[in-house]
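Shape matters. As here.
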Amino acid sequence: MSEAASVVETELKSDTISFAHASERQFAQLLDFYQIDWEYEPRSFDLERDRDGNIVQRFTPDFYLPQYDLYIEITTLNQKLVTKKNRKIRRLRELYPGVNCKIFYQRDYLSLVSKYGLEDVSG
């Protein structure tokens, strides 16, 4: 096997995706490191419709871990926006009781950053 072929094979999935936030990239890199299969924003869930049936609120979790059947939402946002996300997660659980979704708050994210020596890019 040539050196060039070896380099291509070692490219991580997290290197091929354009993430909305650096914290999502870091989380993906952690999943890649531990060889945990993941998908980025693979599905949106309709949460609310207007009288005409048009979707007015939708939620797209950041990650899906197929081997755990688990969606993960990363939030390193300010408290006002976290409250809004919590509301969406509650609504998701009401409408889709079979869907398992975990939210990683800023404290969870910072704990991972500290534990694994990652650079803090939450701000």
Confidence is low (pLDDT under 50) at residues 1-8. Strands lie at 39-40, 45-49, 55-59, 63-65, 70-74, 101-104. The longest helix spans residues 79-95. The CA atoms of residues 114 and 120 lie 8 Å apart.
